[in-house]
Amino acid sequence: YFPLFIPLSYFEEEAEHVEGFAKEMAVVTHHRLEEDPGAPGKLRPAGRLAEPLIVRPTSETVIGKSFAKWIDSYRDLPLMINQWANVVRWEMRPRVLLRTTEFLWQEGHTAHATEAEAREETARMLEVYREFAETVLAIPVLTGEKPAEERFPGAVSSVSIEAMMQDGKALQAGTSHYLGQGFAEAAEIQFLDREGERQLVHTTSWGVSTRLLGALVMSHSDDDGLRLPPRVAPQQAVVVPILRGEDTDAVVAYAEELAAELGKQSYAGEPVRALADLRDREAPAKRWEWVRKGVPLILEVGPRDIAEGAAMLRRRDADGRSGESVPRAEIAARVPALLEEVQASYLAAAAERLRSRTARDIRNLDDFRRWFEGDDGDPNSGGFVRAPWSESPGSAGIMDELKVSVRCLPFDQRLEQGSTCVLTGEPAVVEAIFARAY
Q1: What is the pLDDT of residues 42-75, one digit of tens each?
Q2: Are strands 266-267 and 270-271 parallel, antiparallel or unpaired?
């Protein structure tokens, strides 16, 4: 865990880095308060610092100073660290979970002897993020390289995973950066190679943040509330007893036994997270609370279910107002498969949205405008456009006007020879993903 406060001089050593974060930095200039002589009862800052401190927006500069002390020889490489930390970036227009002044993330930082090793690590971590997004969060993503104007400040190359939300907008869900030797030069991170020569290391950084929670909410939820993929749901199955009259004790016992049976089953290599909700509340209220919280499977049991040896099963990926009666003897054995079906259904729905709302046949500016603006100027029109791009500065004004950006240059390039830019009509040099974004 590295310091929250970073001396301004550390940032000033990497000019492009400080320029990129200058407008987002929170700066500490004083170290105490004192009573204001001109306004009794009021306080004012006192004790001005000799050097301002930056409240950590990211940690490359302060970690680089430590790397310079820890690395001496090629035998010390690669050096790979990760920290879970809070970060402060001064957002003018905060959005809950997506862009907040303070947020939580994990940030990894590595140092390598060669460019090839560093680029390999950059790609490996992006694949870690892609696999996590798709297999755990059930969010399909596109992978690609950021264009120059979207790179992490000071990076040689930035790559990202990009997700599509239900309104068709893009969300950058994770990034990985090859930083080259610029940060190593600024922090003087050198090592003695096998030939006895002093060399600069090649560094990387990568991270995901609480923005993934926003992605999870916006990718799967419906008008009834959250819909959580089973692999991340805190409760995967909840048993709700319907308590009426003299049968209360029997129903409670039935619910507890059923929850215990479910908890003995295994899903994704772990025991099923099952719970019997025995709180003193009406069953419909409890059921809809769990619906809103996105629990994948809800089982209701009452006197009639006990008599029939069954339970009413409701799947969150289906209509929450309907269910099926399942024999008690079958429930526990079926739950792992049902959870996997729910997990797969969320991924399939999100993948179909990404597929159907990604246009691949737009080749001129008029069609591009129509895709994003719609016939009635609907700000939520469109989705993604995958089209040829010239990388010309002249395209920036058009994208600003339409509030569109290049999300990434996909790794699986399919640019046809002779293609022209969808925005300017100039010869295209790359295929790009265009979208409005959060």
Answers
A1: 999 999 999 999 999 999 999 999 999 999 999 9
A2: antiparallel
Per-residue exposure over 118-133, b if at least 16 CB sit within 10 Å of its own CB, e if not: bbebbbebbeebbebb
By DSSP bridging, strand 384-389 and strand 358-359 are parallel
Q: What is the 8-class DSSP label of residue 150?
A: G
Mean pLDDT over the full length of the chain: 95
The pTM of this model reads 0.94
Percent of the chain scoring above 70 in pLDDT: 98
Rounded to an integer, what distance in angstroms lies between the CA atom of residue 7 and that of residue 346? 45
Locate the DSSP E strands across 135-169.
141-145, 157-164
User: How do strand 358-359 and strand 324-327 relate by DSSP bridges?
Assistant: unpaired
Phi and psi of 337, rounded to 5°?
-65, -40
Q: Which tens digit of pLDDT belongs to each residue from 104-156?
A: 999 999 999 999 999 999 999 999 999 999 999 999 999 999 999 999 999 99
Q: If we measure between CA atoms, which residue out of 342, 374, 345 comes closest to residue 357?
A: 374
Is the per-residue pLDDT at 221 higher than 70?
yes
Distance, CA of 416 to CA of 178 (rounded, Å): 28
Tokens matching residue 254: 């039935």
Distance CA 142, CA 434 (A): 12
- For the chain, helix, strand, coil in percent to 5 are 35, 30, 35
- Identify which of 238, 261, 382 has the alpha carbon closest to the alpha carbon of residue 331: 261
Q: Which of 326, 297, 302, 331 has its CA nearest to residue 314?
A: 297
| Residue where the block lists tokens 């006197």 | 303
The burial of 429, by beta-carbon neighbours within 10 Å (0-12 exposed, 13-18 middle, 19 or more buried), is given as middle
Q: What is the dihedral sign for C-alpha 223, 229, 235, 236?
A: positive
Question: Could you tell me the two tokens for 215?
Answer: 């992605």
The angle that helices 395-402 and 365-373 make with each other, rounded to 10 degrees, is 20
d(C-alpha 254, C-alpha 327), whole Å: 13
Q: Positive or negative, the Cα torsion across 147, 150, 152, 155?
A: positive
Q: What is the CA radius of gyration of the chain?
A: 27
Question: What ranges make up the beta strands (E) of 287-379?
Answer: 297-301, 310-315, 324-327, 358-359
Q: Are 190 and 199 in contact (CB under 8 A)?
A: yes
> In whole angstroms, how far apart are CA 270 and each of 261, 264, 273, 429?
14, 10, 8, 48
